Amino acid sequence: MIEFLEALPRYGFLQYAFWAGLLSSLSCGVVGAYVVSRRISYLAGAIAHSVLAGLGAARYLQATRGWDWLHPLYGAVAAALIAAALIGLVNLRARQREDTIIGAIWALGMAVGILFMAATPGYGVDLMGYLFGNILMVSPADLWLMGGLGVVVTLVGLGCYRQLLAVCFDAEFARLRGLAVDGYYLLLLGLTALTVVLLSTVVGLIMVIALLTLPAAVAGHFFGRLWQIMAAAVGLSALFTTSGLALSYGPDLPTGAVIIVLAGTTYLLAAGLAWVRKRGRAA
Amino acid sequence: MANAVEISGLSFAYNGQPVLEGVDLTVPELAFAAVVGPNGGGKTTLLKLLLGLLTPQAGRLAVLGGPPQQVRGLMGYMPQHSQVDPAFPVAVQDVVLMGRLGAGGHWPWASRAERQEVAAALERVGLGGLAGRPFHDLSGGQRQRVLIARALAGRPRLLLMDEPTANVDAAAEREVFELLRELNQEATVIVVSHDIGFVSPYVGQVICVNRRVVSHPTCDVTGEVIAGIYGRDVLMVRHDHHLGCQHD
Predict the structure, then answer these.
(1) From CA A219, how far away is CA B138, in angstroms rounded?
(2) Per the CB < 8 Å rule, is A178 touching B102?
């Protein structure tokens, strides 16, 4: 911890990691609250795994075609949005097939990503970084991209609060009140996709669902309104990422894993506390 | 007086399976009508046709003088209890505010006029003090009343309620129907119910739905009529609250 505080002002990469954690916490809290209350975290999981296909494709094209401008994050964003659109359209058209398409996209995304990486010359790259995150590798260019993405997602997520709340709570009623329910549902999936990409740079795409949902789930034990959960989840997410970074730095532990252990432990404690309180009230 | 609902020769099928056939139905404005019938008989389908969520394959359907999709703003709808996630993190006032959607308010927060409208709707259903409470902290009966308040917040001329008293106890059920009777002063009320014996003291018109639709004034509903609709004898328990139950 002390080592981290001493190193933070000295090393650029630590500062970038610090900012990346804070930036992604904004959209993590806002979108995570929607995802948890609408109960679509498994869907976010499928989107997360499909991200690998985009990362792999972008790396492959960079290496073979010399498209240096094609930042892997662009590929990730494209893959996540395509996955979100596919899942959303299937869900809207044929509700009962949702779990099948989620499973398919989950595995297909991984498979395509691995194939691209295998085909990329000079491979040896950061498959592990993509899967388990490497926040210490965030570059200033990444940071700008992440910042832009995070700000857009957060503003849209907050700006459409009333509509998204209505669609998440009771879509049929919202439709009767003249709301473009399908459009807002797809918008929510799109925001989820972008947030998943952001968070995957922090903890990697395997553990993304945990970072997306756990802060909002913890907050849900203590607050009864969605915007309160959002605010608390932003704070918790910032706390988990920052303290995970600080705790992992000294002993040189994988940062993503430390962040998730912190978030998961806090969630279990909060769930236990809520259970005890409920029993206390009932008795 | 004009009619709130006018249906003639209407048929509807799900994937080729006929659900409603040859429906002719008139509900006058300011009527209080109950839609009854066996499960799977088409009650909810009829309601969804009135709401314009489904489109009939044949026949004519007018609600408040127009096609349903065009008069949705004048309809207040309360879905079946099971459709709403009771654990959803939302305050009572935010639920009621959803009844104002489509009425102009698009900011993430509620305007003062909207807050007043919400408070008035909650007051009418007797939940004036609970505006800021989480929806999931309420009892089943209170949640039903919040959903009624949401339907009221749009100032509807036609209230459509799908099993408004499912999952509530008998006392709460009676409160809900007393409230609906009061609201019936200003709006037509159509209630889907599984319990014809309970609703009969309140409603003036009973719409029996079992693929075909037969409408009766309540006073004509006899055991034979019910047996005809359900296809068997039904044990009917009639509670007459105005004569029998002085103590409540």
Answers:
(1) 20
(2) yes
Single-letter amino acid code for the residue at B202: Y
Q: How far apart are CA B207 and CA B133, in angstroms?
A: 37
- Flag whether residue A179 sits within 8 Å of chain B, measured between CB atoms: yes
Interface contact A223-B89, CB threshold 8 A: yes
In chain A, what residues touch B115 (CB-CB under 8 Å)?
none
Residue listed under structure tokens 């505006």: B131
**B134 neighbourhood in chain A, CB within 8 Å:** 224-225
The whole-angstrom separation of Cα B151 and Cα A217 is 30
Preferred mutation among B47, B54, B55, B94 to probe A, highest tally of A CBs within 10 A: B94
Alpha carbons A269 and B107: distance in angstroms, whole number: 36
Convert A218-235 to b/e letters by CB count within 10 Å (16 or more is b). Answer: bbbbebbbbbbbbbbbbe
Chain B residues whose CB is inside 8 A of the A158 CB are: 108
| Nearest-CB residue to B84 (from A158, A170, A177) | A170
What number is the ipTM of this complex? 0.85
How far apart, in whole angstroms, are the C-alpha atoms of residue B63 and residue A213?
44
Residues A193-205: b if buried by 16+ CB within 10 A, e if exposed: bbbbbbbbbbbbb
C-alpha A89/C-alpha A186 separation (Å) is 8
CA–CA separation, A30 and A235 (whole Å) = 11
Distance CA B165, CA A151 (A): 45
What does pTM read for this prediction?
0.86
Could you give the CA distance from residue A242 to residue B114 in angstroms, rounded to a whole number? 40
Residue B201 has pLDDT above 90, yes or no: no
The residue of chain B with its CA nearest to that of A216 is B89
- H/E/C letters for each residue in B23-89? EEEEEECCCEEEEECCCCCCHHHHHHHHHCCCCCCEEEEEECCECHHHCHHHEEEECCHHHCCCCCC
- Express each pLDDT in B79-93 by its tens digit: 887 678 888 999 999
Residue B142 — pLDDT band, cuts 50, 70, 90?
confident
Could you tell me the two tokens for A134? 């490497």
Under DSSP, the state recorded for B235 is -
Closest-CA residue in chain A for B84? A170
Say yes or no for a CB contact (<8 Å) between B77 and A173: yes
B54 touches chain A (CB under 8 A): no
Instruction: Name the DSSP letter for residue B107.
Output: S
Helices A226-249 and A161-169: crossing angle in degrees, nearest 10, is: 100
Give the Cβ contact number of residue B68 at 10 Å: 21
B65 within 8 A of B74, measured Cβ to Cβ: no
